[in-house]
Automatic annotation (TrEMBL):
Keyword Oxidoreductase appears in the UniProt entry: yes
GO molecular function: oxidoreductase activity
Taxonomy of the source species: Bacteria, Bacillati, Actinomycetota, Actinomycetes, Micrococcales
Domain NADPH-dependent FMN reductase-like: 8-158
Keyword terms, alphabetized: Flavoprotein, FMN, Oxidoreductase
Signal peptide: none
Coiled coil: none
SUPFAM superfamilies: Flavoproteins (SSF52218)
Identification of the protein by name: FMN reductase
InterPro entries in UniProt: CE1759_FMN_reduct (IPR023932), Flavoprotein-like_sf (IPR029039), FMN_Rdtase-like_dom (IPR005025), NAD(P)H-dep_FMN_reductase (IPR051814)
Gene3D superfamilies: 3.40.50.360
Organism, scientific name: Homoserinimonas aerilata
């Protein structure tokens, strides 16, 4: 049987401004991951989503329980990817509300075994622990495979030179190497998953149980 050499990476950026340092960081991780996989002979496709473009759709989904066609397409592409890169700005010491709301409307079994790199941006390095006390627990709960290296970027990391810039580059390269290794052996593209499958909150009689 011919080995499948095609891989697809989904990128989710929760930045609210344009241009966005959150999107810049997501793109850097994606570019490095793609380069690593292409070196191994993989044909890589990247789907990038800025959540600001689906903010109203996410809110409506939370209120009605049903995604719009636009949001449904985003969810389908994210949950069926071979690997996932997620980056959020830090709001009030955690991921922003749009980021959390997007992953709240995805079925909690849809990201099982998904290789994930987590990333965050903020004004100062004081917020760097957000990766381990907020983002990592979220994707651990979703049973994703989170890379050991997360990538945090403070405003000072985007300078023109210096050790901080080099350190950010090193973190991006390390995380990309870890993600590419997981994606290279991923079998998600050959599995059939339903991102809108009913979960345990639906009773056998069809009545919806609300917490």
């Amino acid at each position: 049987m011919t080995e499948n050499r095609a891989r697809r990476i989904a990128v989710v950026s929760a930045g609210l401004s344009k241009p966005s340092s959150t999107r810049m960081l997501a793109d850097r991780i994606a570019d490095s991951t793609v380069a690593r996989l292409e070196e191994q002979g993989f044909d890589v496709t990247v789907d990038t989503f800025e959540l600001r473009d689906t903010a109203q759709d996410v809110t409506n989904n939370m209120l009605t329980g049903f995604p719009s066609p636009k949001l449904e397409d985003v969810i389908e592409k994210v949950t069926t990817a071979d690997g996932l890169i997620v980056v959020t700005p830090v709001f009030t010491t955690s991921y922003n509300g749009l980021f959390k709301s997007f992953f709240d409307v995805i079925d909690n079994q849809a990201l099982v075994d998904m290789p994930v790199v987590i990333g965050a941006t903020a004004g100062t390095a004081r917020h760097s622990l957000v990766l381990d006390y907020a983002l990592r627990p979220l994707f651990t709960y979703l049973h994703s495979v989170v890379t050991p290296t997360g990538v945090f970027a403070a405003s000072a990391d985007w300078g023109d030179s210096g050790d901080k810039v080099k350190t950010l580059h090193d973190r991006v390269e390390r995380a990309a190497g870890e993600l590419s290794a997981l994606v290279a052996v991923s079998t998600r593209s050959t599995e059939v998953r339903d991102p809108f499958a009913l979960d345990a909150s639906f009773s056998p009689t069809g009545a919806y149980v609300i917490d």
